[in-house]
Amino acid sequence: MSRSQSRIVGLVVVAMLLAVPYFLEEFWLQMGLFAMAAAIAAIGLTLLSGVAGQLSLAHAFYIAVGAYGYCYLAGDSGSDPGLDLPSGLNLPPVLALIGAVLLAGVAGALFSPIAGRLRGIYLGLASIGLVFVGQHILRAASGVTGGFNGRDAEPFSVLGFTFDATPMNVLGVEYHQLEKLWYLGLLFVAAGAWYAHSILGSRPGRALEAIRDSEVAAAVMGVNVPVYRGAAFVVSSMYAGLGGVFIALAYQRIVPDTFGFLYSLDFVVMIVLGGVASVRGAIVGAAVVICLPQLLDHYATSLPLVAAAGDDGLQPTDASRFLYGGAVVAVLIFSPGGLAGLARRLSPRHTKESTA
Fold first, then answer.
1. List of residues 6+ apart from 314 with CB closer than 8 A
2. Which parts of the chain span the membrane according to its record (predicted)?
3. Which member of 64, 114, 161, 242 has the lowest number of beta carbons within 10 Å of its beta carbon?
């Protein structure tokens, strides 16, 4: 496929994504929002684990920092003690978003000294501790997090435009909250993918790849290994924080159980399925992992072996984990580059080069 053809395909895909809210029902839009939120965070884990080669199983912790950080910074100050609501700083949503992303980055920076001393599976095991510590804090600090009951997320607004349930009429077409958030999510995913590609094509990206391949060789070439390893954690955490903010906006209410250890494992599956060093693969992997259980639940009554939620039998969530667990094994055996690597191998350009 030539460059001009790739651009045409890209424009067609963009046009389709922009037109989606005109045609899809609420279920599909909601599922798309969840996939977008996961895609943003998955790009960050791709930079950390796929590009820099640092295993982290704490991504759910940083996502929670972003989600709860936004809810606290943008939330009401809790001036009425009789309602027993979690407190907040009542900042403008834009400032709350920026602050939540920065909080997640600070959390990553605080963990980076530990990450600098550990490698491989030991780093992964150490990072798991963050998830359990985070779960305890989210349940115990009820004045900020709402405890087990969680807390609501303030609608996002910028320049007087609010992404809430108030209908907005544009050229005779009504846009509700899901439609508004759809376009906000597309903007966040596009910006996150663009920035990640910019990193990969720059000197810091090449330095991170050198560290992944051999830290000794990277140090010999003049790469400041501890600084770059720490920077990778900070950037990855900030991506997770932004993903957490959008998760809060999409769910409208967040609870601690959302950000458990299994959620961290889901992100590892996303980048493995998509391709551990591929930004596009991370987006595709996020869509697969997030959408599959919801599709199985939606069509449970029409599928064999899958029971509807609440009925006896194989639940949609468990069925989806079996399916993409098998997919991960298949990818590792037959296509280590993930879906992105498979797409490159099947592309006409690769076929011509291999037969030349």
1. 305, 306, 307
2. 7-24, 30-48, 55-75, 95-114, 121-138, 182-200, 231-251, 263-296, 322-343
3. 161
